[in-house]
Amino acid sequence: MPDAVDSFPVTERNKLRRKHERGRYDKATVYDILDSAMLCHIAYVIDGQPYCTPTAFWREGDHLYWHGSSASRMVRQQAAGLPVCLTVSHMDAIVLARCGFNHSVNYRSVMAFGTAFKVEDPAEKLKLMDGFIDRFFPGRSKEIRQPTPQEFKATTLVGMVMENASGKIRSLGVHDDEEDYQVPAWTELMPVHTVLGAPVPCERQLPGLARPEGLAGYREGARLDEVFAEAYRKHYGE
Amino acid sequence: MPDAVDSFPVTERNKLRRKHERGRYDKATVYDILDSAMLCHIAYVIDGQPYCTPTAFWREGDHLYWHGSSASRMVRQQAAGLPVCLTVSHMDAIVLARCGFNHSVNYRSVMAFGTAFKVEDPAEKLKLMDGFIDRFFPGRSKEIRQPTPQEFKATTLVGMVMENASGKIRSLGVHDDEEDYQVPAWTELMPVHTVLGAPVPCERQLPGLARPEGLAGYREGARLDEVFAEAYRKHYGE
């Protein structure tokens, strides 16, 4: 039954009702969209009020992790076991059209659903904190100073199992209703990319240090989604 | 009392508890972060389950608007008066450090809180739908075909008043604890920009059409946040 293993179950929560041809439930696609990002937005509820908080995250298997100050309200509340929805979006293009209705955006997104928990075991927490660094910058956790006991205590690591998730992809060119191609409105697709600028080395860099191999992908002009996905494969293996 | 007019009230909901030196409650800063974006993430709750949905949005005064299919679950539920949190984030840099704890990201973000409502009045709705196009592409609503009655009906326009909101900005270079500058780990700041690629004109462009002045800012290599903010000023005036 490869489908049950390789895909998320489709339930009321993650089923795409609109534009269902854009839906993706296979883990390969969902994971690829997640692993191409550092920033996610997490929805959660405190006293009936929804919050949408941007934060850095990463994936290990079917778990997603993020962290925060142990004093943070978000982290304290989530760690107590809140249901969460963690969403990642990549905007790939703006697509004009000859009527408002056919204007669109190309994108890749994932909504992942689960229940947040706090990582309590110190050994597991330390390993995961190293994984957070190494997943983006392969090998870096071995190059930097390890956390002090105060830093370790001041940081809460929160995780969730992806109980279910759905990906959504739109990747289309300009499309108009047949009769609208006679409307004299200039129409185009505008690609959108998030890229790296030229790195700015620390002014207090120790003399003689070389830029490590683990940062090689982070070069000026590189697409950040591709760099993150490549770093992920480098750290975890294909 | 310029403060009461020019700033959002600080309440339990929008007060920054951590890193409060990064907080911004003045409308000029909050609006600038919002007007530099097309994509937001909206948190809302259906049957106790939080959802975080990415969507296009825009601002008019202290209102935020977005839209969706009238058949969409999100839009139908929100339109009935759900509390929402609309969040916008710009990632500006990845900042390495000599320990995990001082690794960071530079960003500008806004969390805006309010209650969603459906725009019912047809004249207001049509004006706002034109505004949605023109806010991003000044003058474009006059160049394209107007919505058909079916399109108009199939689209639900949802709005919220920003009851309160908070901005958050981190814009710092590499920073390490003084004793860590001796750690032999290469350290740098990596700027991140979302930019436009070369526009791809529609293959069925009518002959003799020129690219309109309203799209002038959308040129290859331009920073999308700056283009959106410039288009906003062009449409609404400074």
From TrEMBL, chains A, B:
<protein>
    <submittedName>
        <fullName>Pyridoxamine 5'-phosphate oxidase family protein</fullName>
    </submittedName>
</protein>
<dbReference type="Pfam" id="PF12900">
    <property type="entry name" value="Pyridox_ox_2"/>
</dbReference>
<dbReference type="InterPro" id="IPR024747">
    <property type="entry name" value="Pyridox_Oxase-rel"/>
</dbReference>
<dbReference type="InterPro" id="IPR012349">
    <property type="entry name" value="Split_barrel_FMN-bd"/>
</dbReference>
